[in-house]
């Protein structure tokens, strides 16, 4: 069985190397441990030894820069057929494969220990698809074993999960093509766009390194952008809400947080959400999770960027309670002192740009939530009421829904309830 | 701080306990006039007399049994099994008596006996005199198991073992008796169940016991020169195990090697590996590597013995495997 010679990682952080020259030619016999080629890394030029004995069947990369883990040659038996090395082909069988059997491992040199994993993978594939010849599977990454499962370390899996990176898109540089944490880290920072067509002079550009918050925002919003969404808008007469707020402010006691229009919105949305649970939900890929409690996230412009702290069980809180919780969490957001728990578990989000005079806008979904409400400024506008033209403070509400989880009618009913509650807050009781 | 040998450190802990406390005495084969096969108890007969430094017949079961009896009667005996290979003869007393009485009496009895023993390869004593059997004892609820690797540790841990109200099996490694190290002027007891990190590192945690702590430190130094930063972690007490410190260390380095002189199969490293994979699963970036003796009876021939038991080079290879490099 042929052994693919992959470019080894010779130091922490090494990502590529430059092949200077081959010390063997195609067709030459090779002994394990013999110098095979000269490799130039950032630090040194050194001879790389063969990992297997046999005949050098093919040199895939004659010279030049090569990423760590790429196949540069194939060693096998004389006369053996070599498939065009897809450079990201199946798992390497030999190459320093640590056996998980400790006793044998120390009894033999590791490189000589048979790699068990590929054996098992082959067996699995054979039984999974009878009749299909088990060879040459078109797979994008070497880390994807024949059985379809990507071989990755638990740490690499966790980092990929946290950053929304698809492991199958990565090329593993660990033993047997395993994706290790460093591969995921590298993918996370790899530029995705091509270089710009023009390069502005250096002094015209301010380069702002992404903070981790900014990175999270970028990742999550890109993810959100992929959801099929639709928007619905209504306007609501805010007379009663403003009057209610005035009364509450007038009765405010020492040390209590002053309720804002947004607090009323939080409370009202929570009351509407528990009546329309289709909207109070998460889209989980294979299921929709509907919640009985409304954990309302409120978008806050913090110094480092947007954060969305969550007011938990808002439907059960009094308005004073919502105001107190909001005041506390917003203060911490502005100080950059939010805890992870403050940001987790939201079932719905409210984004309010009314204070900036924005009359109406569309917000981007906050996944896995299925709905977000964009709130504009309350403006005095003419309104026809009982055939009379009246002037009322009105607000434009635009909700964005994830159509995978919510249908138009569900969304419309929810919004109608929000409007009704705003216009007659007593209904929300 | 004075510098003393591991051997002197053991003797110092025993002697100080005996000076302070009439309940402490030592008992074992050839420990009196001869001062023990490893010279640990040399001079103690002169200081404490034959009542408290007691020679015994070659009868391991009786030695431990007598220790258990004395312990149940309120003494704090330290009995010595000359080679840990001979623990096998006393296992009935250790496993079925010492480990059980406190439990079976509902706490009315306690058995504060310390069973000191030593073993290990390095001098070619052959298949029956050089084994590392600590894993056998870790498997028994009711026992505490200690394996000390430095003069400072062996003294502080032995003190704690003597004053622990439970039976403690206390392993020493033959090749360590001569090593020297600084110790505090006064004995500082070391809590049983508290690990020691000999060296901080970022890339790999090597969990090592006994002689392999020193091999791991040598391997770590070499790895460091190659740009791999190694943390060397000595649990010191095998039972109870300092799981928190262990998991914290692996969460930091994301990779783990376990190294002991005992054979790999069924060794204490298997327990460490299991604890690590469960407690730090999502932090592991490589399989846990095990280093230990090959699965054969220890050969007598020195070159063969050296071939069978692990050394720094084996630890280094395992370190490199976890970071995906070849030495």
What's this model, at a glance?
The complex is a heterodimer of chains A (429) and B (327). Chain A has 429 residues and is α+β, with helices and mostly antiparallel strands. Chain A has helices at residues 102-107, 116-128, 154-163, 181-189, 212-225, 239-250, 261-275, 319-334, 340-343, 408-423, and strands at residues 3-6, 16-22, 29-30, 35-40, 45-49, 54-59, 64-67, 71-76, 229-237, 281-283, 288-290, 296-298, 300-302, 305-307, 310-311, 348-352, 371-375, 379-385, 388-402.
Fraction of residues in H or I helices of chain B: 25-40%
Overall body shape of chain A: elongated
Number of beta-strand segments of chain B:
14
CATH topology of the largest domain in chain B: Rossmann fold
What are the secondary-structure elements of chain A, in order, as H or E? EEEEEEEEHHHHHEHHEEEEEEHHEEEEH
What is the helix tally of chain A?
A: 10
Quaternary form = heterodimer
Instruction: Please report the first level of CATH classification, the CATH class of the largest domain in chain A.
Output: Alpha Beta
The main sheet of chain B orders its strands as 3-2-4-5-7-6-12
Radius of gyration of chain A: 30 Å
Distinctive features:
heterodimer, A: 429 residues, alpha+beta, OB fold (Dihydrolipoamide Acetyltransferase, E2P), Chloramphenicol Acetyltransferase, 7-stranded mixed β-sheet, 4-stranded antiparallel β-sheet, 10 helices, B: 327 residues, alpha/beta, Rossmann fold, 2 domains, 5-stranded mixed β-sheet, 20% strand, globular
């Amino acid at each position: 069985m042929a052994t693919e010679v992959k470019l080894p990682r010779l130091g922490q952080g090494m990502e590529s190397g430059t092949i200077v020259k081959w010390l063997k030619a195609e067709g030459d016999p090779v002994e394990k441990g013999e110098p095979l080629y000269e490799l130039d890394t950032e630090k040194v030029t050194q001879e790389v030894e063969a990992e297997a004995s046999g005949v050098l069947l093919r040199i895939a990369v004659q010279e030049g820069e090569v990423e760590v883990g790429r196949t540069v040659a194939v060693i096998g038996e004389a006369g053996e057929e070599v498939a065009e090395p897809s450079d990201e082909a199946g798992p390497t069988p030999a190459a320093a494969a640590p056996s998980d059997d400790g006793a044998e491992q120390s009894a033999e040199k590791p490189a000589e220990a048979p790699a068990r994993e590929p054996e098992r993978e082959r067996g699995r594939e054979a039984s999974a698809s009878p009749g299909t010849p088990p060879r040459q599977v078109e797979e994008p990454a070497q880390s994807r074993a024949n059985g379809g499962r990507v071989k990755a370390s638990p740490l690499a899996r966790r980092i990929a999960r946290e950053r929304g990176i698809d492991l199958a898109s990565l090329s593993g540089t660990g033993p047997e093509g395993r994706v290790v944490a460093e591969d995921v880290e590298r993918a996370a920072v790899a530029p995705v766009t091509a270089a710009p067509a023009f390069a502005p002079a250096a002094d015209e550009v301010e380069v702002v390194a992404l903070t981790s918050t900014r990175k999270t925002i970028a990742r999550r919003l890109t993810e959100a952008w992929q959801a099929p969404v639709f928007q619905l808008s209504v306007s609501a007469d805010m007379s009663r809400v403003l009057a209610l707020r005035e009364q509450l402010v007038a009765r405010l006691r020492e040390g209590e947080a002053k309720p804002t229009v947004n607090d009323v919105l939080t409370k009202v949305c929570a009351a509407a959400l528990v009546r329309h649970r289709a909207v109070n939900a998460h889209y989980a890929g294979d299921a929709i999770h509907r919640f009985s409690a409304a954990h309302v996230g409120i978008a806050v412009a913090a110094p480092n960027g947007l954060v969305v702290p969550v007011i938990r069980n808002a439907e059960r809180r009094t308005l004073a309670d919502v105001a107190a919780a909001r005041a506390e969490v917003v203060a911490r957001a502005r100080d950059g002192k939010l805890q992870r728990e403050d940001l987790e578990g939201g079932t719905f989000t409210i984004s309010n740009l009314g204070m900036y005079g924005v009359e109406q806008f569309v917000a981007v979904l906050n996944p896995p939530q299925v709905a977000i409400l964009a709130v504009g400024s309350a403006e005095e506008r003419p309104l026809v009421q009982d055939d009379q033209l009246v002037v009322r403070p009105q607000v434009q509400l635009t909700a964005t829904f994830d159509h995978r989880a919510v249908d138009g009618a569900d969304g419309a009913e929810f919004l109608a309830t929000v409007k009704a509650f705003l216009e007659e807050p007593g209904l929300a009781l | 701080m004075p510098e003393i040998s591991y051997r002197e450190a053991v003797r110092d802990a025993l002697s100080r306990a005996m000076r302070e406390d009439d309940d402490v005495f030592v008992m074992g084969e050839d420990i009196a006039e001869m001062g023990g096969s490893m010279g640990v108890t040399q001079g103690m007969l002169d200081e404490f007399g034959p009542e408290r430094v007691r020679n015994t017949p070659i009868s391991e079961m009786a030695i431990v049994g007598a220790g258990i009896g004395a312990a149940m009667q309120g003494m704090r005996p330290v009995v010595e099994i000359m080679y840990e290979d001979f623990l096998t003869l006393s296992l009935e007393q250790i496993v079925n008596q010492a480990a059980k009485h406190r439990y079976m009496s509902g706490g009315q009895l306690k058995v504060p006996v310390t069973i000191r023993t030593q073993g290990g390869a390095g001098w070619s004593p052959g298949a029956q005199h050089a084994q590392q059997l600590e894993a056998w004892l870790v498997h028994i609820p009711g026992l505490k198991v200690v394996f000390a690797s430095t003069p400072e540790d062996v003294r502080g841990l032995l003190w704690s073992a003597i004053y622990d109200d439970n039976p403690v099996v206390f392993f020493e490694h033959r090749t360590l008796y001569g090593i020297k190290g600084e110790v505090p002027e006064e004995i500082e007891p070391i809590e049983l169940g508290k690990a020691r990190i000999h060296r901080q590192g970022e890339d790999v945690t090597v969990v090592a016991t006994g002689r392999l702590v020193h091999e791991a430190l040598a391997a770590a130094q070499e790895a460091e020169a190659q740009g791999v930063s190694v943390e060397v972690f000595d649990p010191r007490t095998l039972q109870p195990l300092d799981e928190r410190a262990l998991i914290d260390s692996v969460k930091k380095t994301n990779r783990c090697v376990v190294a002991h002189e005992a054979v790999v199969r069924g060794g204490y490293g298997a327990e460490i590996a299991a604890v690590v994979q469960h407690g730090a699963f999502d932090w592991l970036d490589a399989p846990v590597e095990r280093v230990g003796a090959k699965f054969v009876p220890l050969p007598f021939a020195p070159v063969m013995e050296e071939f069978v038991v692990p050394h720094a080079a084996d630890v280094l290879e395992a370190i490199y495997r976890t970071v995906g490099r070849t030495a």
